[in-house]
Amino acid sequence: MDNSPTVPLAASGATTVALGPSAPSRRRGGFGRELAGALTVGLCVLAVVVLVFQVLAWVRGVPGPGPAMVFGHLGAAVLAVLVQRVADRATGAAATVAALGVVAVTGATMWFLWWA
């Protein structure tokens, strides 16, 4: 015999009360917007890594990446986050252009701060 307490789910004659507006249906982002989001996260992680390496270099008394590299990555990460916010909130052509903007910021960051 089970002696665990039970609570009735609803009493007879009970009414349902809505607690607030229903959540709006979320649309799918699409591959381009998801790729732009991944690139944005990657730039943010890379900016933190470069900053940590610069701090470690200061602590150990070695040159490190340098201020141009640190500020370049931090600026690119902030810019990518701002453009990604536009891509996430906009629809149609504006979202596509913003997602392409994130790709351009990422490409420029890689080119000017790593490869060139």
Describe the protein in words.
Keywords: Membrane, Transmembrane, Transmembrane helix. The chain crosses the membrane at residues 35-59, 65-83, 90-114. It is a single chain. The radius of gyration is 24 Å and the shape is elongated. It contains 3 helices and no strands. The chain has one domain (30-115). With 116 residues, the protein is mainly α.
How do the strands and helices of this protein lay out in sequence?
Blueprint: H1 30-60, H2 67-89, H3 93-115
Helix pairs in contact: 1-2, 1-3, 2-3
Transmembrane segments: 35-59, 65-83, 90-114
Keywords: Membrane, Transmembrane, Transmembrane helix
Q: Any idea how many domains? A: 1
Strands, total number: 0
Gyration radius, in Å:
24 Å
Number of helices: 3
Derived from helix and strand composition plus strand pairing, the structural class reads mainly alpha
Helix content: 55-70%
Morphology: elongated
Gap from first CA to last CA = 77 Å
Keywords: Membrane, Transmembrane, Transmembrane helix
Transmembrane segments: 35-59, 65-83, 90-114
